[in-house]
Input
Amino acid sequence: MQGTKLFSGEKGLRFLYRSSGLMMAPLLILLFTFSTCRVNPPMNKPAAGPEKLSLIKLPPGFKIDLYASDVKNVRAITWGADNVLFGGSRSEGKVYAMVDKNGDKKADEIVTVAEDLHMPTGIAYKDGNLYVSEVSRVLVFKNIDKNFRNKPSFEVLPYTFPEEEHHGWKYLKFGPDGKLYVPVGAPCNICKRDDDPRFASIMRMNPDGSAAEIFASGIRNSVGFDWHPVSKTLYFTENGRDWMGDDIPPCELNHAPEKGMHFGFPYCHGGTLPDTEYGKEKPCSDFAPPLQNLGPHVAPLGMTFYTGTAFPEEYRNGIFMAEHGSWNRTKPLGYRVSFVALDENGKSKGYTIFAEGWLEDDGSRWGRPVDILMHPDGSLLVSDDFGDAVYRIYYQP
Ligand SMILES: [Ca+2]
Ligand SMILES: [Ca+2]
Output
């Protein structure tokens, strides 16, 4: 058992439960007590409901509504055909279809497409097929639009990722080059794993699983990325390390315009902050700095470029990010949707809060944004794996 595994948030607690026998019980209780003292207080269920949505603060003219509810632990979301929204999950092990039958921009039916999968967090759709990530493999559900109600079988891409569960759940998205991009998180809070250079990287491969390669490295854990609508280059969110303090390091939004860049993990955080353990080995100047530093421990996950026209001009081609929210911080931070506007060179014009209120003033929380996807009408869908919901944010001044 590696010490670094013990205090890694939800994953760490789950690891403790799984690895504990009777002999471990006293240690488990001790560690659990220590852990809960250091992390934030428990969050509040029940979660999303129409009565809670009135707590969400948005810029003038914007409104929020429930798109789907009771979608247990819903994580990444993607569109299929015919107003069918697919969603992955993590602890729940399920893939869902959320069907808007009458086109009123609310799902009327939730179908469980698959279950008993291994952290099927990421989800992507291409040419009628649904790609779902597990920890060490990618599943393909063929002709999903016709088959999603029939407990469809799946094929497995012929490429195997590491089996480590720590940061092992994977976001998925197809790039403008037609390749499937797959992150491989560091299997730790902070560590160097020269034995397998795939750790702490973003990889890409052909849709059939061939020609897998590392696209970018030095990335602790990315759980969200997208490509700029004009430059077609990759931007990705990254979760900063834990246990360096409440206010450091920042989480990051990064830009990888070409293959082969290194973004600093485990040596350097936030572009300027040497790691307490590995920082002496290589200077921060060796690495690509973040495009934008984000709040400490806010846990940025899914992100999307806004390419619609329904929102005001200032949002066009900017980045919306879901901040899942901190656990490794005395005062919780995150639990919101943030926005980064870019200039004509693709550089950040600033980091602002777009939607907040899932975290209440007393520190209690009732929702955790995970992924963001544009609705075809130009509104934004936001998934919430704690509130078991998908919200729709639209502009109606
Ligand atoms: Ca409907
Ligand atoms: Ca970095």
Q: What stands out?
A: The radius of gyration is 20 Å.
